[in-house]
Amino acid sequence: MPRKKQVDADKLIAAVKAGKPSKDIMQNFGIKTTAHLKALYYDALVEKGQAPAIAGRGGKAASEKESRQIQVNKRGSLIVPASMVEEFGFKVGEVFSARKTKAGLSLKRA
Question: Residue 69: which of 105, 108, 110 has the closest Cα?
Fold first, then answer.
């Protein structure tokens, strides 16, 4: 992965606030794309405390993985996440009777 381009944050912010065209700013700082210019401008604003930083995705992605949903696979088997199995105290090999209710599905230990 290429190194992150080092740009003087004060100069970049000043150039944008002065209303210079993006092509001139890109040429002065050696930036090739407008997306890169926008990313560098945002980084400069965050560095100077003029814009809030975006929180990392690490914690969010982990919380999305924990699902409280049971899925039906191609064969028709119900897939219960391991976290739910532990939470409910189920054991491997336990048998349940299932019935459809108005609310959805009801499982009862057989």
Answer: 105
Domain 63-109 has CATH 2.30.29: no
C-beta separation of 45 from 13 below 8 A: yes
CA 17/CA 39 separation, integer angstroms: 16
Burial label for 26, CB within 10 Å (0-12, 13-18, 19+), is middle
Per the CB < 8 A criterion, the answer to whether 68 and 84 are in contact is yes
106 bridge partner residues: 99
Nearest to 29 by CA among 20, 1, 47: 20
* Cβ atoms of residues 10 and 47 within 8 Å: no
Spatial separation of the C-alpha atoms in residues 58 and 55, rounded to whole Å: 9
pLDDT in tens, 10-41: 999 999 999 999 999 999 999 999 999 999 99
Per domain, the residue ranges of the chain are 9-47, 63-109
